[in-house]
Prior knowledge:
The protein is mainly α. The chain has one domain. It is built from 6 helices and 2 strands. A hairpin with a 2-residue loop joins strand 1 and strand 2.
Amino acid sequence: MVTETQTTTATTIGNATFGEWTAGAVGGFLGSIFFGLLMRYVIPAPMLEMAIPAMYGIEGPALAAGWAIHQFHGVALGLAYVALVQWEPLRDPASRLGPAIGLGIGYGALTTLLLAVLVMPIWLATLGFPGAPPFPNLAIPGTIVSLLGHVAFAVPVAIAYALVARN
């Protein structure tokens, strides 16, 4: 006699469920809108029109291309957040709203340090972009505004993830 057992589980990719990956992507897209609005109306340099398109060899002003690239970056970084919080010490706090907001603030600071302070100046200088910031990019108040923008991006990512991944 053959006995069959069926088990229903959530679809996972790595340690995260499909819903968690989706939450990271959607949160990243939404968070990128908040950050993009800060870049468009607060940060003095024409980041969206010139610097972001220049990273991909597009001469500006190219506002539509800048927004599209920025949104793509947001989704990619939202997915990177999901991958990061699969690390066991972060998994439980990331699934609870209060601690997740703290993780989002930390992730915003981390992305500022890695991307705005270190990677972007090298990338733009390598491409010969005339408006490339110095390395490391620690200009005040620009780096502080960038930090606020990256936090405004990362907190929605963390909240979206926590709402889906709740214990």
